[in-house]
């Protein structure tokens, strides 16, 4: 694994020509995705500014152009008419002011119907490398260029650690106020969310207080990427707790969870209806964000980063890494978020493929099962050996995913086996397979599991045992891997 100097990681991109050859190399990788948003070069991480505005979906992601390394972060911009076909639009935010001299870090978008705004964390560091995070805002002009306000909305609070970032902007009509949720860490190194309020979008911001979630005062060491949405009469709070190990998650210290409950903006209290739930049970899912400006009150749209902050992946050797998950439609049913690919994703489905044990590099697979133990091995060799093992224990009602059989093993120190404890019996799995990822929607989307996989050319077969029905479809390409900077 390459060692990067600080100067290399935090180098300013001055011309697209500096990374044109890198893009050409990256684009030749056998692991470039066909229908997942991925970095034009280098590293992509958190999704940002996800919003529907004037008939178009806008999505940004944190981007380090030089390679698979966390360094100087830009926002890279992609757009879509339907959440399926994505086009590269170039840099959305640059670290070009004193307030964001070492990176434009995560945030969210807001549309008032006429104008669109991007709220982000300006990552400032002084000559001694001391960090000061600022909450900043930019407005998109008629050419989709971001015009930054000359001053931040507010700076950090000194009674919390330097970890104060990822502004989520919401408007609450009954209060006639805007609120910003900030992921934070207190001086005792406990995860928190700070809330700011204002009657005006671009001025008058004041600290309202700390979000209270009864029973979770000591949960996690930092709450990254907080996001809140109102669905079907209930509030859903998602965030990514860091620096903590959670039950059944191996050695990982980065997670994505959600609460269903009620948000009281007078007392700044989110009262959960039950325990936290995992947003995704997979090895690689983080920093998820709800799309802003979704008109259906019974639906939310969500996207996450297929990756984790401290993990490393085989494409690092090719100087690129990371993908966005498929955009997911979420509904509340029976006290759970039910997730599925957006409806228009079916546009990519081609002819049904004969289920003969050969696994295309991009496809959709659907399996149904009768009661009992079942097993599915993906990405096996031709003789059926190795691969990603998915097996269900009907007595324990546990679905286990084991990637130890893959030729390219990675993040072994974090864990290679994860379980999904299920409340009900396994009935079906819908698997969406791209060139270096697999997303599983289990029991109609009641459970999801997302993972990076890097099959070798010999690992494109599968075996099944105990399944009632197996069906496959070829999937088309919907992401333009163009060099746009």
Query: What composes the largest sheet?
Result: 6 strands, mixed
Helix coverage percent of residues? under 10%
CATH architecture of the largest domain: 5 Propeller
Q: Number of helical segments? A: 2
End-to-end separation in angstroms reads 27 Å
Annotation keywords:
single chain, globular, 485 residues, 2 domains, 3% helix, Jelly Rolls, 2 helices, 35 strands, Tachylectin-2, Chain A, six-stranded mixed β-sheet, six-stranded antiparallel β-sheet, 48% strand, mainly beta
Task: Give a structural overview.
The protein has 485 residues and is mainly beta. It folds into two domains: 6-341, Tachylectin-2, Chain A; 343-478, Exo-inulinase, domain 1 (Jelly Rolls). The protein contains two helices and 35 strands. The chain has a six-stranded mixed sheet, with helices on one face. A six-stranded antiparallel sheet has the order 24-34-25-30-31-32, with no helix packed on it. Strands 13, 14, 15, 16 and 17 form a five-stranded antiparallel sheet that branches. The two termini are 27 Å apart.
Précis, in short:
By secondary structure, this protein is mainly β. The protein contains two helices and 35 strands.
């Amino acid at each position: 694994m390459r060692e990067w100097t600080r100067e290399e990681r935090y180098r300013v991109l001055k011309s697209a020509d500096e990374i044109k050859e890198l893009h050409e190399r990256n684009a030749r990788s056998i692991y470039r995705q066909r229908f997942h948003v991925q970095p034009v070069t280098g590293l992509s991480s958190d999704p940002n500014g996800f919003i529907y505005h004037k008939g178009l979906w806008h999505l940004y992601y944190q981007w380090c152009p030089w390679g698979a390394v966390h360094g100087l972060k830009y926002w890279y911009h992609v757009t879509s008419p339907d959440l399926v076909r994505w086009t590269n639009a170039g840099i959305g935010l640059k670290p070009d002011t004193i307030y964001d001299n070492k990176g434009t870090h995560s945030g969210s978008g807001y549309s008032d119907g006429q104008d669109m705004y991007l709220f982000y964390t300006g990552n400032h560091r002084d000559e001694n490398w001391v960090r000061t995070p600022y909450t900043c805002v930019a407005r998109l002009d008629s050419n989709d260029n971001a015009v930054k306000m000359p001053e931040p909305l507010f700076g950090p609070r000194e009674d919390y650690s330097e970890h104060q970032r990822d502004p989520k902007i919401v408007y609450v009509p009954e209060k006639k106020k805007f609120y910003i949720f900030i992921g934070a860490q207190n001086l005792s190194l406990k995860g928190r969310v700070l809330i700011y309020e204002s009657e005006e979008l671009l001025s008058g911001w004041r600290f309202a207080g700390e979000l209270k979630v009864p029973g979770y005062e000591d949960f996690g060491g930092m709450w990254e990427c907080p996001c809140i949405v109102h669905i079907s009469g209930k509030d859903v709070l998602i965030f990514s707790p860091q620096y903590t190990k959670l039950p059944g998650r191996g050695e990982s210290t980065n997670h994505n969870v959600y609460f269903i409950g009620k948000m009281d903006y007078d007392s700044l209290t989110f009262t959960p209806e039950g325990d936290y739930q995992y947003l995704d049970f997979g090895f690689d899912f983080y920093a998820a964000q709800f799309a802003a400006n979704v008109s259906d009150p019974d639906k939310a749209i969500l996207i996450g980063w297929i990756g984790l902050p401290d993990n490393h992946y085989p494409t690092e050797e090719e100087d690129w890494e990371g993908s966005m998950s498929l955009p997911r439609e979420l509904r509340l049913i029976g006290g759970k978020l039910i997730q599925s690919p957006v409806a228009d994703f079916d546009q990519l489905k081609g002819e049904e493929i004969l289920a003969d044990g050969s696994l295309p590099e991009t496809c959709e697979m659907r399996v149904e099962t009768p009661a009992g133990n079942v097993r599915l091995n993906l990405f096996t060799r031709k003789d059926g050996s190795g691969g990603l093992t998915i097996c269900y224990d009907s007595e324990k009602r546990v679905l286990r995913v084991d990637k130890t059989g893959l030729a390219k093993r990675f993040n072994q120190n974090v864990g290679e086996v994860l379980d999904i404890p299920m409340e009900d019996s396994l009935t079906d799995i819908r698997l969406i397979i791209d060139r270096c990822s697999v997303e599983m929607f289990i029991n109609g989307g009641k459970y999801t599991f997302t993972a990076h996989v890097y099959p070798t050319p010999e690992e494109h077969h599968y075996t099944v045992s105990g399944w009632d029905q197996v069906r496959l479809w070829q999937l088309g390409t919907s992401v333009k891997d163009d060099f746009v900077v």
